[in-house]
UniProtKB/TrEMBL annotation:
The lineage of its organism: Bacteria, Pseudomonadati, Pseudomonadota, Betaproteobacteria, Burkholderiales. One of its GO terms (cellular component) is ATP-binding cassette (ABC) transporter complex. SUPFAM superfamilies: MetI-like (SSF161098). Belongs to the binding-protein-dependent transport system permease family. HisMQ subfamily. The chain crosses the membrane at residues 20-45, 72-92, 200-222. This is Amino acid ABC transporter membrane protein 1 (PAAT family). One of its GO terms (molecular function) is transmembrane transporter activity. Pfam families: BPD_transp_1.
Amino acid sequence: MSVIEMLGFGAEGWGGVLLLGALMTVVLTIAALALGAVFGGLVAAAKLSRFRVLRVLGDCYTTVFRGVPELLVIYLFYFGGSALVTSIGQWFGADGFVGVPPFAIGAVAVGMISGAYQAEVYRAAVLAVSRGELEAARAIGMPTLTMARRILIPQVLRFALPGIGNVWQLSLKDSALISVTGLAELLRASQVAAGSTHQYFLFFVAGGALYLAMTGVSNRIFGRAEAYVGRSFKRNFARN
């Protein structure tokens, strides 16, 4: 069988499997980034809090999830979650091992890792906002929600977007580690295709090429988003 046939979309080709794996990778990364935004926002707020207990908890979160290897986090969530669900099932009379959905566990694990990095991005973005603008808004009696909507959030978005693009790339690569749970993302699809055909070099190169393609498209999307936010900020600044 030729290389074109193996990478094609025919009956014996693996092109469709690889593309479905790439789609699963993108969906998983989007879910992880969304969860990470929630975790990161809460942790950033804790690290910026005036309460020492919250600052310590926020520091502990970022230290743990940035310091522990990503694969170990995924193993702990997958096998620990399965053990927990199995124990709960046994309390209710269930027999045997109860597994957890690989996609859900992967999204939560990568999301919590992503959240540790996003927290630092958001914290730095908030600190980059001019204190003078916020003080001026308070001085004229602007309500807190209005100040957040018109001053804080637009500037935080502008400052944080480049960092979020980097976190996206990190999460995109971390998603490959979810293959250890059996989820059919891109790396797992490449492994299955390589094992079935014994063409390991071909399919791992094909998988790498798809990762590079996703990275290139992501860079273009975030680049355009940064340019759009920058133009919008300049227009609003000139209008004000």
